[in-house]
Amino acid sequence: MKRSRRVKILATLGPASNDIKVIEELARAGADVFRINMSHASHELMRETVAKIRQVERTLRYPIGILVDLQGPKLRVGTFAEGSVMLGKGETFTLDASDLPGDKTRVYLPHPEILASVSVGDRLLLDDGKIELRVTATSPEAINTTVVYGGKLSNRKGVSLPDTMLTVGVLTEKDRADLKAALETEIDWVALSFVQRPEDMIEVRKLVQGRAGVLAKIEKPQAIDRLEEIIRLSDAIMIARGDLGVEMPLETVPGLQKRMIRMCRRLGKPVVVATQMLESMITSPVPTRAEVSDVSIAVFEGADAVMLSAESASGSYPVEAVVTMNKIAEAVEQDALYQGIIRAQATEPEATAADAISAATRQVAETLDLAAIVTYTSSGSTGIRASRERPSKPIIALSPKITTVRRLSIVWGLHCVQTEDAISLEDMVDRACSIAYVEGLARPGDRVAITAGVPLGTPGATNMLRIAFVGQDGAGGS
């Protein structure tokens, strides 16, 4: 298979799409990476889903990435004696350590870490921000608040803390068990929810030990405050606009999205835009015009990937949602303004041989109108560098490691192929030209640019650029 677009599509699997036939349909329609949400999946279901995806991968002979999304700390209030209460503006309300059923004046808060962390003046947002409380007094046993925005509060509604840095780590015991099971299943990416600080990433990286890419979900104001540090410690990030839009003013989210995409591109880290991209397609076969515009903006901005959540996991039209997202991406990338916008966002390469070679390769490929750029990449870093330049020419990423090939399926513009390591420079050129020909990205007589590290097989040591002709049989020649 060969995509006609550069941006990648993540599709979340769930009750509507867990069948192997639907997974194959989604992959054929355009899904490059599948997401398994551990908020709704058991270890057994996760393993079954991974096995189905790998079977589809073998059928299609096309690498597919798998991302396991850890639930993270789910903060919720307790229960009420009558199931719910109405809170009025200006009333007082207490969240405390008593597990008795709640009433109009108080409710159980089963999270001692919140009781230990909040300060007077902090906001507490309940039920996705529909209710806002302001802290007036704190103790180890209770938080006293005033209702700023009232409404109906029912059992086990979520609690968000936009002004509070929790003193505990981001990984729960459930997350640790889920992470262990996911790594044993040999998934490609693990997503960490509710990241607040760089230390959260360090903790997870120690546990993962390079067995999967670590993706930080940016959905807390505290993460925005230390954004660059978190991105540098991540292998990729996700702009999780749902919780971000609850804990921060909604009108600031589009600007933050642009800022994060550009920062990730500068730092050479893949970035995924997520949440409500085609939300109406959960129940409708067609999206709203605003949703089409939203997806288009992410593509114009140069995001590596766009993601579907409930649209593909539990909606009525999972395949149609992927088809629609694919069509939008293709239309944007063929727009006359697209290349100019992408080029205007380019950043200067780092002062390293590998970055300089990648920048030069893009310029050479476009100046000489080459058919494609072929990168040999063991660890994946060369492929990511080639992608960072956002060239107008196709990029073929070749690696002997299937783990690298699958992990790169989230990265903008990379057509990933597993192949044996080249044994010589001549073999490297022949192999690159032959694969470009077989994959339909170059024809006899075309030229391709080839980048690699010499000595061959040295991870992260890109230091060579070669231009080669594709021969009649697909073999290469200088």
UniProtKB/TrEMBL annotation:
SUPFAM superfamilies (alphabetical): Phosphoenolpyruvate/pyruvate domain (SSF51621), PK beta-barrel domain-like (SSF50800), PK C-terminal domain-like (SSF52935)
Catalytic activity: pyruvate + ATP = phosphoenolpyruvate + ADP + H(+)
InterPro entries referenced in this protein's UniProt entry, alphabetically: Pyr_Knase, Pyrv/PenolPyrv_kinase-like_dom, Pyrv_kinase-like_dom_sf, Pyrv_Knase-like_insert_dom_sf, Pyrv_Knase_AS, Pyrv_Knase_brl, Pyrv_Knase_C, Pyrv_Knase_C_sf
TM helices/strands, residue ranges: none
Cofactor(s) listed: K(+)
EC code(s) of this entry: 2.7.1.40
Every Pyruvate kinase barrel domain range: 5-322
Classification via PROSITE patterns: PYRUVATE_KINASE
Residue ranges constituting the Pyruvate kinase C-terminal domain according to the UniProt record: 355-467
Pathway given in the UniProt record: Carbohydrate degradation; glycolysis; pyruvate from D-glyceraldehyde 3-phosphate: step 5/5
Keywords: ATP-binding, Glycolysis, Kinase, Magnesium, Metal-binding, Nucleotide-binding, Pyruvate, Transferase
GO MF annotation list: ATP binding; kinase activity; magnesium ion binding; potassium ion binding; pyruvate kinase activity
Family, as annotated: Belongs to the pyruvate kinase family.
Name this polypeptide is given: Pyruvate kinase
